[in-house]
Amino acid sequence: MAISVHIKKRLKDFELNVAFEMESGCMGLLGASGCGKSMTLKCIAGIETPDSGRITLDGWVLYDSEKKINVSPQKRKVGYLFQQYALFPHMTVWQNVEAGLSGARKKFASQKEKNECKDNLYSKTDDIRYIILYKLNKLVHFLRSLICCLSG
Fold first, then answer.
1. Alpha helix locations (H) across 1-152?
2. Residue 53: CB atoms within 10 Å
3. Cα 49 to the chain's mean position, in Å?
4. In Å, what is the CA distance from 19 to each residue of 4, 6, 53?
5. How far apart (Å, rounded) are the C-alpha atoms in residues 17 and 36?
6. Largest CA distance in the chain
7. What are the residues whose beta carbons fall under 8 Å from the beta carbon of 102, sequence distance 6 or more?
8. How far apart are CA 6 and CA 19, in angstroms?
9. Phi and psi dihedrals of 35, rounded to 5?
10. What is the pLDDT of residues 107-139, one digit of tens each?
11. Which domains, and CATH codes, for the chain?
12. Residue 37: what are its φ and ψ, rounded to 5°?
């Protein structure tokens, strides 16, 4: 999978200026805490928007400031694992749930079906909390078995 990233983003304490290209293989981002590793990944995933530059994945332009192209995170098909458990901060709780459902190709036949799903979801809040905590606990154990530090 080929990737090309040439971006700039002004942050609170510095300007992120990243440029790299890779034709295939596996790559790691290494650097000191706060140097912009996570911000670079967020820009690639579309969660953050660079101030300028261009990002392409297998020839597909995900972001180009000159051509005013900025593909939404949902359409980029790029996974991003947050360092802490998080929802998409710019979306409501229900929009976050819908994002997960659309990822599973769940389509509602009607507004009534969508409302029934919401009602069912809200009635099982305690069950959902248990499932989330259980899965998060398993994820933490899994990640600890692989690596000692993600980034930042």
1. 37-45, 73-76, 93-103, 111-123, 125-146
2. 19
3. 12
4. 8, 4, 9
5. 9
6. 51
7. 74
8. 4
9. -85, -10
10. 667 777 777 776 666 555 555 555 666 566 666
11. 1-80 (3.40.50.300), 81-152 (no CATH)
12. -60, -55
49-68 residue pLDDT tens: 999 999 999 999 999 999 99
Q: Which residue has the tokens 């332009």?
A: 61
pTM: 0.59
Q: What is the per-residue burial (b if ≥16 Cβ within 10 Å, else e) of 85-111? A: eeeeeeeeeeeebbeeeeeeeeeeeee
Side chain identity, residue 63: Y
- At 86 the three-state DSSP class reads coil
Report how far residue 64's alpha carbon sits from residue 151's, in angstroms, rounded to the nearest whole number. 26
Q: Residue 66's CB: how many other CB atoms inside 10 A?
A: 8
- Please name the amino acid found at residue 40: T
135 — phi, psi (to 5°)? -70, -40
